[in-house]
C-alpha cells in the first residue's frame, strides 16, 4: 500500500465507524469484531505492532484465520490511527444491529 492509499483507508475506516457503518476502531471494539469473525481488513499502526507485539500477533492470527487482509500503517496515517484508534481498526464485512459507534 502506498502512503496515500494508507491515508485513504484509515480515513475511510474511521469515518465509516463513526457514522455507524461497517468499521470499528480501538482495541476493545476491534477485538470483539475479530472474535465474531466480522473483519474484512485489519489495520495496525507501526507503533501498535512495536508496543503491543504479542497482542498484535494474536490479532493478526485471528484476522488471517477468517480470511481477512492485514495492513500495517505507517507515516501520517499510522500516527492518525494511533491517536484516534489506539493503533488498531478494522473494515467490517457486516455490522451487528446492536453495535455502537
What does it look like?
The protein is of the alpha+beta class and 101 residues long. It contains five helices and four strands. The protein has helices at residues 3-18, 27-35, 46-51, 53-65, 75-85, and strands at residues 23-25, 39-45, 69-73, 88-92. Strands 1-4-2-3 form a four-stranded mixed β-sheet, sandwiched between helices. Helix 1 (3-18) runs parallel beside helix 5 (75-85).
What structural category characterises the helix and strand content?
alpha+beta
Catalogue the unreliable spans: none
Instruction: Tally the beta strands.
Output: 4
Question: Strand share of the residues?
Answer: 15-25%
**Dominant shape:** globular
**Termini gap:** 27 Å
Question: Considering DSSP H and I runs of 4 or more, what fraction of the residues is helical?
Answer: 40-55%
| Structure annotation, total helices | 5
What strand line-up does the widest sheet have? 1-4-2-3
The largest pleated sheet is described as: 4 strands, mixed
Order of helices and strands: HEHEHHEHE
The mean pLDDT is 94
CA-atom Rg in angstroms = 12 Å
Task: Output the keywords.
single chain, 101 residues, alpha+beta, four-stranded mixed beta sheet, 5 helices, 54% helix
In short:
The chain has 101 residues and is an alpha+beta fold.
Question: What is the topology?
Answer:
Blueprint: H1 3-18, E1 23-25, H2 27-35, E2 39-45, H3 46-51, H4 53-65, E3 69-73, H5 75-85, E4 88-92
Parallel strand pairs: 2-3
Antiparallel strand pairs: 1-4, 2-4
Helix pairs in contact: 1-5
Amino acid at each position: 500500500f502506498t502512503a496515500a492509499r494508507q491515508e485513504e483507508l484509515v480515513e475511510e475506516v474511521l469515518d465509516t465507524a463513526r457514522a455507524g457503518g461497517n468499521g470499528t476502531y480501538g482495541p476493545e471494539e476491534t477485538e470483539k469484531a475479530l472474535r465474531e469473525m466480522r473483519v474484512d481488513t485489519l489495520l495496525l499502526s507501526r507503533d501498535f505492532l512495536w508496543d503491543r507485539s504479542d497482542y498484535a500477533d494474536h490479532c493478526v492470527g485471528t484476522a488471517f484465520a477468517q480470511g481477512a487482509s492485514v495492513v500495517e500503517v505507517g507515516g501520517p496515517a499510522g500516527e492518525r490511527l494511533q491517536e484516534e484508534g489506539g493503533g488498531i481498526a478494522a473494515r467490517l464485512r457486516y455490522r451487528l444491529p446492536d453495535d455502537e459507534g
